[in-house]
Amino acid sequence: MEATIMITQAPARAATPAPARSRWFALVVLCAGMLMIILDQTIVTVALPAIQQELGFTTADLAWVVNAYVIPFGGLLLLAGRLGDLLGRKSVFVTGLIVFTTASVLCGLATTPELLIAARFVQGIGGAITSAVVLGMIVPMFPEPRERARAIGIYAFVGSAGATIGFFAGGLLTEALSWHWIFFVNAPIGVVAAALAIRIFPAERGLGLAAGADALGALLVTAGLMLGVYTIVATGSHGWGSVHTLGFGGASIALLVAFVVRQATARSPLLPLRVFRSRNVSGANVVQALMVAGLLGWQFLNTLYLQQVLGYSPVEAGLAVVPVALAIGTLSLGFSARLNTRFGPRRVLIAGLVLITVGVALVSRVPLDADYLTDLLPGIVIFGTGGGLALPAVTTLAMSDATDADAGLVSGLANTTQSIGSALGLAILATVAAARTAALSPAAIPTPQSLTSGYRAAFAVSVALLLTALTVAATVPHPTHPTRPAHPTRPARPS
């Protein structure tokens, strides 16, 4: 069979604790660091009103508490993942934890809007460096297919359930203590995770900068991605058809096209284009971008619907979506590995996407005075069940053809598509909801009726994104059984 990812250099030595107990403990450390990153992406949302009141943010500037984190996070994931292959994933992971933890403390100590935004930008850099290499460390750590499927299921649970828990934790910390603690809580977790990572992961040597030190390529892709994420998150202020959006969006596309051309001609490319020859890698990344766009965008707006229309408090809104985390956890931790091993990740992904789509479609019909148990909970549970199937499966597919030399890169690529999908989905759904609400509120004062109609319209777009993801999942990836990979990696020839 044809190999899709070729190793042209000696593979990096994986930071893999040999005994089984050590491997699972190491996974706990990696997931603890990842959970801290994931929580931070949602925990801030419910604290924004308190931050605005205390620090004196204007309404327009308040969005930059989120955007200042999202832009460097989405822009640096690909570069950070490749640096993990070149410099060693352990050192990159620990460095990211230190940067993220330090920036979190600075966020909590901020006394002005400018200081908080600057600290959030640094926090986004640390988050990207940390999370970009986690999957690249997990894959070589668990070479046996069943163990790997289980490990990826745990990773997927941490990523998806962590986002849900963030809404609840943000409200709880803000109400019980203050918004400062949504950042201070990262300090002990980050310090312990970094100390344990230094202790349990053996020293490793990466491929070396000579194997992919493409400075021009790094500059092009980082600038292109950061500019693209900025363009997406700024659409709420400027609109999709504005000169600002079209100009910056065009510049982002031009930079990314130049990056692709550079990778096709460079002697040591940052992102070898051979990676995309794998239908599993390419298909899974497209599916992930579309799925996350529909999934996280819906989850965010559903939380706003609970508060703005049904009058839930931040803590109550967080508790309302806890069944999502429970359903995802039950499947990701208990059944997804066995299902992926028995039926193959592609079939499990398709089944999960069907359930997610059905769940969102059910909630999209919410009435103005929705009852939680009858109108919302059934769709939320079905949504969470689908997430518990789809998220581990798409991650398994995205990493299925990764080698030791490319694992960090493929991990960074998967995280990049997830980040861009999240930003794009939220921007699109928020725009649709706002436009529909504004059309029904001529006095520019949203009513419960206009807000509900706006959320319904956004949820319909979420369904469309998920159906598109389902179509790609059914047609692009190979129907590969995880114990019999369709694309065996050809070993490197000794020099």
From TrEMBL:
It is found in: Cell membrane. The chain crosses the membrane at residues 24-50, 62-80, 92-111, 117-139, 151-173, 179-201, 213-233, 239-261, 282-301, 317-336, 348-368, 380-399, 420-445, 457-476. It comes from the Bacteria. Residues 26-480 form the Major facilitator superfamily (MFS) profile domain. It is a multi-pass membrane protein. Keywords: Cell membrane, Membrane, Transmembrane, Transmembrane helix, Transport. GO terms for cellular component: plasma membrane. It holds the Pfam family MFS_1. Gene3D superfamilies: MFS general substrate transporter like domains (1.20.1250.20), Multidrug resistance protein D (1.20.1720.10). PANTHER family: BLR6921 PROTEIN (PTHR42718:SF46), MAJOR FACILITATOR SUPERFAMILY MULTIDRUG TRANSPORTER MFSC (PTHR42718). This is EmrB/QacA subfamily drug resistance transporter. It comes from Allocatelliglobosispora scoriae. The lineage of its organism: Bacteria, Bacillati, Actinomycetota, Actinomycetes, Micromonosporales.
